[in-house]
Amino acid sequence: MNRLGEVIVSRERISNMVNEIAGMINADYAGKELMLVGVLKGAMIFLADLCRAVDIPVIIDFIIVSSYGVETKTSGVVLLRKDIDEDIKGKHVVIVEDIIDTGVTLNYLKDVFESRNPASFKICSAFDKPSRRVVELVPDYCGIKIPDEFVVGYGLDYAGMYRNLPDVRVLYND
Ligand code: IMP
Ligand code: MG
To answer: What is the dihedral of CA 87, 89, 91, 96, to 10 degrees?
Structure first.
């Protein structure tokens, strides 16, 4: 049975984190136009908050990826199931993710996006579990580091559930 555990990141902390990252993005892209690319479905809530906290002009797009074997093996296979609608050549792009775990998903997306010759490419993640990395990947904008626990809420799901919880909580499987 799955049991919803304690809050490990409160909505207040999340809100502060969003504002901090938005401040960095405002400074880094002042006078520029930015494309924010959300990784569905997990990043939808973070992206919705982040795009309203920045005050530079943004274009929003989404991708969908599937990962296989990421939980257990050192090299997961990532499939891009829905690509962005526009060409990113010459554009400033920030990819927005819910959480970085092994790093396999974003490592793959980094290669895909960088091969398309954007003006710049950066990675932004709301949460990070650095202790779980199997590939070297450091997000440019990193929200809140969390311990090696399975967590849900603020976009993060278990079997499609719990994305709507406003705080991030541990999910126990007992
Ligand atoms: P990775 O960095 O390629 O291992 O995969 C990151 C993806 O795994 C995230 O986008 C999430 O969809 C999922 N994920 C990793 N850790 C968690 C968690 O604790 N809760 C919910 N989803 C997670
Ligand atoms: Mg995800």
So the answer is: 60
Please tell me which residue in 101, 111, 140, 167 is annotated as part of the active site.
101
Closest CA to 6 of 149, 127, 130, 142: 149
Is 82 in a helix, a strand, or coil?
A: strand
Measured on CA atoms in the order 100, 145, 148, 150, is the torsion positive or negative?
negative
Which of 46, 78, 98 is the pocket-test mutation for ligand 1 (most atoms within 8 Å of CB)? 98
Other beta carbons within 10 Å of 19: 13
Q: Would you state the pLDDT for residue 71?
A: 52
- Classified as helix, coil or strand, 88 is coil
Q: Is residue 61 annotated as a catalytic residue, yes or no? A: no
SS3 of residue 116 by DSSP:
coil
Instruction: Read off the pTM.
Output: 0.95
